[in-house]
């Protein structure tokens, strides 16, 4: 049984004649079709959980296509020897306080005090977000009769 990356490399080689990351969109789809067939035939590693989650050929194809694109970005063999660097660095997602409150709510689903704290934290997050989206207004640049609104 081939590892997923081995299956991608073999499929690229069968289509392009050599191992290269220079593929068109059509060639990426062809590689994904080959990998999908390998998954369905049991020739490519695919966990039992993945078989349950991706239970149709279309879902397996979508998975395989994403996997091919991932290897094209991240494999130094395919991307010209470049270390993969994500386009944006993502920090922690979401508000830590809100996450903690929701975890507490899971333990105490009928606790009104926790529900109120969640509501207050969500309001605070919304207010913070709104204030960040507010643009600074140059009052002196406004016509005299509109300055009172700034």
What does it look like?
With 150 residues, the protein is mainly α. It has two domains: 4-74, no CATH class; 96-141. Helix content is 58%, strand content 0%. It has helices at residues 4-16, 25-40, 48-53, 57-74, 96-107, 112-133. It is flat and about 70 Å long. The N and C termini lie far apart (68 Å).
Output the keywords.
mainly alpha; 0% strand; 150 residues; 6 helices
Determine the structural class based on helices, strands and strand pairing. Answer: mainly alpha
Q: Kindly, what is the distance between the CA atoms of the first and last residues, rounded to a whole number of angstroms? A: 68 Å
Radius of gyration: 26 Å
Shape: flat
Mean pLDDT over the full residue set:
87
Order of helices and strands: HHHHHH
So how many helices? 6
Tally the beta strands: 0
């Amino acid at each position: 049984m081939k590892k997923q990356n081995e299956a991608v490399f073999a499929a690229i080689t069968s289509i392009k004649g050599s191992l290269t990351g220079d593929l068109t969109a059509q060639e990426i789809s062809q590689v994904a079709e080959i990998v999908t067939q390998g998954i369905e035939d049991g020739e490519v590693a695919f966990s039992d959980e993945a078989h349950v989650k991706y239970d149709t050929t279309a879902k397996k194809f979508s998975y395989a296509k994403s996997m091919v694109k991932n290897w094209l970005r991240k494999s130094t063999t395919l991307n010209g020897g470049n270390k993969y660097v994500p386009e944006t660095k993502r920090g922690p997602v979401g508000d830590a306080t809100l996450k903690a409150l929701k975890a507490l709510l899971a333990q105490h689903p009928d606790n009104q005090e926790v529900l109120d704290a969640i509501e207050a934290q969500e309001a605070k997050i919304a207010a913070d977000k709104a204030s960040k989206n507010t643009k600074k207004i140059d009052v002196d640049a406004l016509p005299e009769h509109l300055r009172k609104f700034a």
